[in-house]
Amino acid sequence: MAEGKSAGAKGFVDSAVHVHVKDYYGKVLKNSSDLKTNACVAPSQQIPAFICQALKKVHPEVTARYYGCGLVVPECLEGCRILDLGSGSGRDCYVLSQLVGEKGHVTGIDMTEDQLEVARTYLDYHMKEFGYKKPNVSFVWGYLEALGEVGLEKSSFDIIISNCVVNLSPDKKRVLAEVYSVLKDGGELYFSDVYSSGRLTEEIKKHKVLWGECLGGALWWEDLLRLAEEAGFSPPRLVTASGITVDNKELQEILGDFKFVSATYRLFKVPKGNTKTSQVVYNGNITGVEDSFQFDCQYTFKVDEVVEVDGEVATILSHSRLSEDFTFQPPGGPCELRRVKPKAGIVDPFELVLQLEKQSLGSATGGCCSTRSAACCK
């Protein structure tokens, strides 16, 4: 897609890609049923009860105009300052508003005025629904590639989330650099996005519908690892992944042999270079995951279990907001606690999808709840 001439925030010039995406999500799509693939549709998955309760309080129109590919609600949120990249209709912002509490704050940024209008329309409705005396949510018009140009200060956010939006940017490297800049030391980027099995062809990247459907701009997953390192982040930790299907025959022919997944990663702004393993014990104080906390697809921490973690995770646990929820066990510490070894780490989301599919075939499946609607949350 050729570069455009539209003026963006404080001198940022948006491209033809930005113009098309704004039109696609502001005018072409009226609700999630208008999507032509399931790339921007969150997979059915089990949702924790406390998140289900938060989803139920979100206005139906806000939910109907939501397009996302995962569940971007990290743990340990009380009192945090959160930024939602590409916040759209505001669904995730209003869920997080309840989880950070009145002392926390959630900022949503989006470049599509039609989506922001929906989000802002229901601000007073949600604050009243949540019982808050003053709003702890605000919405800003702007671009992911120019966060500083809309007044978002450097080192000002504890957590940044994004739900199937980074792929829509034509400059992912700049997005990650901007995110790193506005995150506090110890802060986290927790985001779901679409990834491809290889670098996409120019034909695919220039296809307007495929770009709007979150496929044409998908990163090769290995490029995410490289771009994250260049921005300064610790190596991405893969949380979960699910396969994407394209039932539209015409679009599938253009895509050829390329495959796609929706994957959730967590990236931290912490010191790098620690190679020493450590033993840690989870204290069980994080709301909603008091008994067991799944940090990523490699590490699940259960209360009063000693877990050996690699140097990267040890640094994250000791330098992030999670530091107060873990105790570092000295060598030769108390032997009454159960000691466990983590399973092998996975960074390839396609490999994780295959592993999860095997596990699913080998176990009984229970009721699932889609993250698009809270109707099935019990």
How many β-strands, per DSSP? 16
Report the principal-axis shape: globular
Return the average pLDDT rounded to an integer: 86
Rg? 20 Å
Helix share, percent: 25-40%
Low-confidence runs of at least 5 consecutive residues? 1-8, 364-376
Strand content: 15-25%
Question: What count of helical segments does DSSP give?
Answer: 13
Biggest sheet features: 8 strands, mixed
| Derived structural class | alpha/beta
What is the ordering of alpha helices and beta strands? HEHHEHEHHEEHEHHEHEHEEEEEHEEHE
From the N-terminal CA to the C-terminal CA, the straight-line distance is 45 Å
Notes on the protein architecture:
- There is one protein chain.
- The chain is α/β, with parallel strands linked by helices.
- It is 30% helix and 22% strand.
- It is built from 13 helices and 16 strands.
- It has helices spanning 16-28, 49-56, 60-64, 91-100, 113-121, 123-130, 172-182, 202-205, 208-212, 221-231, 249-255, 311-319, 349-361; strands spanning 44-45, 81-85, 105-110, 137-141, 157-163, 183-196, 219-220, 237-243, 260-268, 278-282, 292-294, 300-302, 305-309, 326-329, 338-340, 369-370.
- Strands 2, 3, 4, 5, 6, 7, 8 and 9 form an eight-stranded mixed β-sheet that branches.
- Helix 7 (172-182) packs across helix 10.
